[in-house]
Amino acid sequence: MALAAVAAFSSAPVAAQGEGERMLIIAHRGASGERPEHTLASYERAIDQGADYVEPDLVATSDGVLVARHENDISDTTDVSTRPEFEDRRRTKEIDGQLVTGWFVEDFTLAELRSLRAKERLPLIRAANARFDGLYQVPTFAEIVALVRAKEAETGRRIGIYPELKHPGFLLQEAGIDTVDLLVLALQEAGYTSASDPIFVQCFEIGPLKRLDRLTDVPLVQLVHFIGGPADEPALTYADMATPTGFAAIADYADAIGIDLRYIMREDGIDGAVIEDAKATGLAVHGWTLRKENVFLPPPFKSGGGEAATGDFEAIWNALAATGMDGVFTDDPRLAAAVQRGSQPAGGN
């Protein structure tokens, strides 16, 4: 499916962009620079600000419902640690080679999870977002799809969705939850079945993407980290994958790469060589993650005012666009849309 799908979705309104066209604005966990991540409020704000796609990370409850959390550990993104009724759910687990202590989605039913409330993950950097702590529930994937469809009806424009399967190998082996099958069923029910539909499905692991390549025609994205390697291929590193040979192998089962911007955002500026290598194999290239705060930016794009201050977002967005990148994951779709329009961004928080 992979290479054929590139041609099929290249003409779709919200699909991969050609050279000289604008980059896709992929709202990373929604408008997570302005609202607690992975909440319906964050996704809706991103859509209202002009995002082409919203990105939910997906894990699953013990009763097999796909929900949006950055990790299956919900210690830092919900109020679970303050809830005495769930104190006995605290566990230590080995997840993809790392010991993690906390509370995990797969140990909660959907009803239990819905009793929790979301909170800001980076309160020291995004203090304004913490004002919204306690207001929002953890959304299901079905609710996110329903929101997207409602906003399409409201705005008359096509809005994409960009789900990521988180730790599918761990959840299958340790909890018996097959998130690949759950996602395929959810996509079919939502009508996402073809290469031209406004959707990308992403994963850091290789096996789940190869399964998806056999089960669906929707575009697939291999995520490539700057360190480590895929949890299901211990002999392979992401650095090996970020080479012409590695990209050629990815093109056999995926349509695009989602590449860590540290391959491109160097201490002294921007280097787009890896993008050229990927595109030479027919892959679209989406970079992650562009955030506005100084702490996340290379020195040439920092401003005064400390780590939480906003750097030169416009300059770095334009520098990335000049590389020929097709899309960028950003916590700040409001700023990205303003750069695309050549206007000043509307008010923030």
From TrEMBL:
InterPro entries the record matches: GP_PDE_dom, PLC-like_Pdiesterase_TIM-brl
PROSITE patterns attached to this UniProt entry: GP_PDE
Gene3D superfamilies: Phosphatidylinositol (PI) phosphodiesterase
Domain GP-PDE positions: 23-340
A cellular-component GO term for this protein: periplasmic space
Family: Belongs to the glycerophosphoryl diester phosphodiesterase family.
Protein name per Swiss-Prot or TrEMBL: glycerophosphodiester phosphodiesterase
Annotated organism of origin: Parapontixanthobacter aurantiacus
